[in-house]
Design brief:
Shape: globular
Distance between the termini: 26 Å
Helix content: 40-55%
Radius of gyration: 30 Å
Number of strands: 23
Structural class: alpha/beta
Bound molecules: pyridoxal-5'-phosphate
CATH architecture of one domain: Up-down Bundle
CATH class of one domain: Mainly Alpha
Largest sheet: 10 strands, mixed
Length: 638
């Protein structure tokens, strides 16, 4: 490696903004590998991602794959709980703090179990929003000190399941989202002879901001208006169940980018809480919902992929906001409940993919020798190239664009030949490359020429599906940090965008985290012959992990769960391997039957054997191969 292409861990960290989005969990080691620091300390344990990859290959686990760092998940759980507890203690707040993990953020059993285990000292509970999630909560949240909070629309079975939880002695709170649920809960509780715990979800006037602004505000699909809350209180009082109404809930939306929204919502909800408490409702919990943002792009801004506050600030604003209004109104401080999920899970998992091919715009290289009677457009393009210098590049750029477009039209009319077109395009890309080099030297790039970097960017074809593994980059333009996990001691030289292996032109990523905000291209290394180049998509642990779909029948990924080795801070172990979907599994979800498919192919082969077109021995091999592929991974083998 030439000395000038070396880059220090600090420089590379700056280039990919690793410390800005990493929340202290990522670092580059002296070998140029990306590492995970589960305790957020450089002098604590560290896991070299390339070593995990090496071990996975030894075990025959194919890529792309998800790696879960369970220690990171555990660390986030204690961070949320201890931050709130510290803020409560430091500010003379009289109420407690209880967190519940919303299962929908990442429903994987291992994730839920890990959060409950790491959260046991803090009585961390669960939040469910559907019957299936509630059934998981009933089976896994057995801690009598932890809450189970139930949101979402409910039918009778949903309520009966919740009351079953009460019979088991659990603190299951049914949060009323819709007025009709009050009378259903009263009726079913009487029928099952059990005292329910009831909450109400307030429809706040404050708008959430960011992508999920619609989760609150007057037109939100969830929650009760003030009049419905008052009528609900009357209904419960009438039924002799007012003592069951213990929780007031709100949720302004996910990934709240702006701290002002949190302050406003807390103030509005605390007012409702205090008013109800003063009027004799024995409330105990104020549930502030989820929504703590993750700084995906590391900009610490109020943009949609970021947030302009820290966890510490968030906790301060919640605790002090509630305290102030309770003190003013003489109401005792409630136990604060948090339902944040994205914040807990985003950092713990990543998708590792390998680059399978690179598509270079500029790599064409066809040349014709110059002739006196060549087409005028070709002659003009040659002239543009010859005239290009540091003073006229903007003019030449415009000319070259024009000539190229004219040439394509002329080609369609049959007046420019295929070879002439190839030559014109080759020169065009040479011009673009030279202009781009000139622009690198400039402090100020004219806006029109900003497109050149984008034009010139290569496409790196990566072994994954955007729809399965990075759904939010496609669906809602979410930014995800993307970083090579190797060669980070070497200056990356290739400007590129990322395309996946689906046959869908939307299967690409063309917005990236960059030093100054967002960029249309990403700097990666030129892959080396005979060496895999591994790139990671980070912060995929919340929603992305479980919302993926099987577009093009690319199925779920292979997955490994990694833990630090307690005895050796530089070592790790793979605790569990979950094999991803095989072709027959994804086909079965669309009603195909792999056995029948194999039979159809075998029958077709047999027919060709009978007609003498295929040798019997070869026929057997072909059928075996087809069957083997049915049981194989859906991604590209390398
Ligand atoms: C989705 C959801 C959450 C989780 O939100 P995050 O942004 O992941 O913290 C919490 N509460 C309710 C009611 C939800 O619907």
């Amino acid at each position: 490696m030439p000395p000038d292409s070396r880059i220090s861990p600090d420089e590379v960290g700056e280039l990919y903004k690793i410390s800005r989005w990493g929340n202290g969990y990522f670092s580059v080691n002296s070998r140029g590998h990306l590492c995970v620091l589960p305790e957020r300390r450089e002098d604590g344990p560290r896991i070299d991602i390339m070593e995990v990859i090496a071990e996975m290959r030894e075990q025959g686990i194919a890529f792309p794959a998800v790696i879960r760092f369970h220690d990171v998940l555990r660390s986030q759980v204690s961070l949320l709980n201890t931050t709130f507890r510290d803020v409560i203690a430091e500010n003379g707040y009289q109420g407690g703090f209880l967190a519940v993990y919303p299962i929908k953020v990442n429903q994987m059993r291992e994730v839920v179990e890990e959060i409950l285990d790491a959260g046991a000292p803090f009585d961390h509970g669960l939040e469910a929003g559907s019957k299936a999630e509630l059934m998981a909560a009933l089976a896994y949240n057995a801690n009598p000190g932890a809450l189970t909070v139930l949101n979402g629309y409910k039918d009778e079975d949903y309520v009966r399941l919740a009351l079953l939880g009460r019979k088991l002695g659990r603190r299951v709170v049914i949060v009323v989202e819709n007025f009709s649920e009050f009378s259903m809960i009263v009726r079913l509780a009487r029928e099952m002879k059990v005292r329910p715990l009831i909450g109400v979800r307030a429809k706040l006037a404050v708008q959430g901001g960011g992508r999920w602004a619609g989760s609150s505000g007057e037109r939100a699909k969830f929650g009760l208006a003030c009049s419905e809350i008052i009528n609900g209180v009357a209904l419960l009082r009438e039924a002799g169940m007012l003592d069951c109404l213990q929780l007031l809930h709100f949720h302004v939306g996910s990934q709240v980018p702006d701290i002002r929204v949190i302050k406003d919502a807390v103030a509005e909800a605390a007012r409702i809480y205090a008013d109800l408490a003063v009027s004799g409702v024995p409330l105990r919990y104020l549930d502030v919902g989820g929504g703590i943002g993750v700084d995906y792009d590391g900009s610490r801004s109020a943009g949609n992929s970021s947030r302009n506050y820290s966890l510490q600030e968030y906790a301060m604003d919640v605790v002090c906001g509630i305290r102030q209004i309770c003190d003013e109104t003489g109401v005792s401080h409630p136990c604060i409940v948090s339902e944040s999920g994205r914040y807990l899970t985003a950092h713990h998992s990543c998708v590792i993919t390998n680059v399978v091919n690179t598509i270079h715009q500029t790599k064409t290289g066809f040349s014709l020798s110059r002739t006196p009677d060549e087409h005028i457009l070709l002659a003009n393009m040659r002239e543009a190239e010859e005239e290009l210098d540091g003073d006229n590049f903007q003019e030449i750029f415009n000319d070259a664009q024009q000539i190229k477009n004219d040439a394509i039209n002329a080609f369609k009319l049959g007046v420019v030949s295929l070879a002439e077109r190839a030559e014109i395009e080759t020169i065009y890309w040479r011009i673009i490359t030279r202009i781009s080099r000139m622009l690198d030297e400039l402090d100020f790039v004219p806006a029109e020429l900003g497109r050149i970097a984008e034009l010139k960017a290569s496409q790196y074809l990566c072994n994954f599906s955007v729809f399965q593994s990075a759904a939010d980059t496609w669906a809602i333009d979410q930014l995800l940090p993307i970083v090579p996990v190797m060669r980070l001691d070497e200056m990356p030289t290739e400007r590129c965008s990322i395309v996946d292996i689906t046959c869908d032109s939307d299967g690409k990523i063309s917005r990236f985290v960059s030093q100054d905000g967002h960029d249309r291209s990403l700097l990666l290394h030129a892959p080396r012959e005979g060496e895999d180049y591994f790139v990671g998509l980070f912060l995929t642990g919340a929603y992305q992990d479980v919302m993926g779909d099987m577009h093009n029948l690319f199925g779920r990924l292979n997955e490994v769960h990694v833990y630090c080795d307690d005895d050796d801070p530089a070592d790790f172990y793979i605790e569990e391997v979950i094999r991803g979907a095989t072709a027959d599994m994804v086909l079965a979800t669309m009603q195909y039957n792999a056995e029948m498919m194999a039979r159809y192919v075998k029958e077709a082969v047999d027919k060709r054997i009978r007609s003498g077109d295929i040798q019997p021995r070869e026929g057997v091999r072909l059928v075996d191969f087809y069957e083997e592929c049915l049981g194989g991974y859906t991604y590209l083998g390398v």
